[in-house]
Design brief:
The structure holds 2 protein chains of 2 kinds. Chain A is mainly α. Chain A is built from 15 helices and 4 strands. In chain A, the strands form 2 sheets. Chain A has a two-stranded antiparallel ribbon with strand order 1-4. A two-stranded antiparallel sheet of chain A has the order 2-3. The chains are: A mainly alpha, B alpha/beta.
Amino acid sequence: MSKRTLATLVAGLAILILLPFTQSNYGVFVLCSWLVYSISAMGLNLTLGYAGQVSLAQASFMGIGAYTTALMTMAGVPWPAAMIAAMVLCFVIGLLLGYPALRVQHHFLAFITLAFNALVVLVLRNEEWLTGGTYGIVGIPRPELFGLQTQKPLAFYFFVLALFVLMAVALYAIIRSPWGRAFKALRENPIRANSLGVDIRKTTLLAFAIGSSYGGLAGSLLAQLTQFIDPHSFGLTISLKVLLMVIVGGAGFFFGPILGALLIVLAPEFLRFTEGYYLMIYAVLVIVLMIFCPTGLLGLVERARTALKLRQNPNATTWEAGR
Amino acid sequence: MTPVLSVRNVSKSFGGLKAVDNVSFDVHQGEILGLIGPNGSGKSTLFNCVLGQLPSSTGTVLVDGKEVAGKRPCDLNKLGVGRTFQMLQVFPEMTVLDNIILAGQEHKGTMLSRLFGKPDAGLTEEALRMIDFFRLGHQTHEKAGSLSYGQQKLLDAAMAFMAGPKLVMLDEPAGGVNLTMLGDLKERLKAFNRERGATFVVIEHNMEFVMSLCTRIIVLANGRIIAEGDPETVRNDPTVIEAYLGG
């Protein structure tokens, strides 16, 4: 990592620490939502952006994580245990959902994961004895840390921020490791990867499982943030929203989903003055972006940077230009 | 000495068509075996049966005396069998260095130790040597997809060699490669064979390339071996000439 990157990261973190102090309670809530959705989108970015496995089920893992945390903490289980349980459960279910990916790919896989999402929502809605049905669950407690309550928005924000940083660092470590290389190889050429000793089966399943556990943690935090959950919060539209975050930001770029989540969470706030036209404007913006920049915003940045360097030094190789 | 590769009575049928018909041969340590034959003679099918991409209908394949039927390609690779493909097979969005490291990393440690170990699995130095050996040094940090076709062929071969395999199976390494690059490729393959005692099986249509690279040649026609021997013998064999010219 270069000094410049490090300085940018430190500056970014400083902004994340200072920003909430300038915000109203509602502003802090929006920032929290952004970080929570970022964690979910980071997970999907691993599954889709790095390992190339299409999934339209990320919201269902957020749901599984949210309900697990809600039910366990309300039954008196300490919150760390409940959150870990949520992640482990999502890891295991993600592993199972990975099995179809060993047989089918692309849009077929998209349909299977879509069906899974619908299934989870149906279970959440119909198993009223456990999930409260369409009424959902109210009054989910926020965690208490070393005697400190996170009931106040600001305190909870820092709790979310800490987990966000932890999960981002963990993801970075995974992507930089040989596993990350194997995930990318799976995305780019599974047959060749297999012939070079990459166990395609394990790699595919892990890509699903790790990505799903990120979704689980995000759901867990969402339950604590809103303190109210219902099946509607984890439907297919939310899966599509998380997918949009990954694609708009730049799938396969580390900061892509974080930027994507920022835009998707904040866009409604900025477009509020347009009232009823909000969704139309939003849709047009997304369509324009996808036409002119299918690799997302960070893909656009990379392209611009390479073009600029090449103009300054036409003899540079693309590697030198890309630096 | 146990042959590195031993193919015993292998047949493969697709419906009524016998693509490979009772083929047997051995490949010994340090040999460069050429597998030639007219289009549709069963070379690629035979290759795929040996490499576990296709299950053979009958017969056995032994690598170092061990039966390898039913093994997945990744397991076969871990047993020391490297391969290249007829069609280009590199990872275009990854750098040349990452392509090469990937080709070696799965042979280092366990899956779990790779997650917590060094990001390059301790392979950077060896990878750079391999890249230099195949004369791609100035492209180390380029994306593999930005290399020329010939350079990608070299990279493809380098990847097959990275894990130090006992046996490398090359499927048309010369296809679509220009003359200069072809000379380079041949010379690098020979150097690899000489310096590290590597064993190759090569499928190729380019006769000149095969005749000057291989130490022994097997000719297939209609799924059967019709001739076998050193390049000179095979070149003058009337059955081979007949098979190619359709007599």
